[in-house]
Amino acid sequence: MSLTPPEMISATSRALSLPEIVFEILACLEAQAELCPQPVQSTLRACTLVNRTWFFDATIFLYRNPYIRNGRDSEVKINALVRTLNTTNRGLY
Fold it and tell me: Rounded distance, CA 90 to CA 64, Å?
């Protein structure tokens, strides 16, 4: 069994932690969101599980274009649901 040298592990960890690189990667994913929103959302969710840097950056992109699933297994944009609330209820959130 071959183990990865410690130098490689630390280099990989450092590369994954560079916020400017992470942000650029996620920005590319967001650019694809107009073509296929659900796969991009699930990819961004997976990015939140990498480490703290990825979590915080991916969360920003996830909340820019949020989707939820309704009972018929289709996507509904949350902003459309919020527009259906009357103004009294909107103040609660």
Answer: 19
Q: Which residue ranges make up each domain of the chain?
A: 7-90
CA 79, distance to chain mean position in Å, is 17
Q: What is the pLDDT of residue 93?
A: 47
Tell me how far apart the alpha carbons of residues 68 and 78 are, in angstroms, rounded to a whole number.
7
Two structure tokens written together for 34: 């107009």
Residue-wise pLDDT for 13-63, tens only, equals 766 667 778 888 888 888 877 676 567 778 888 888 988 888 988 888 888
Could you count the other beta carbons within 10 Å of the beta carbon of residue 71? 5
Phi, then psi, of 7 in degrees rounded to 5? -60, -40
- DSSP summary character for residue 51: -
Q: Residue 26 in contact with residue 47, Cβ under 8 Å? A: yes
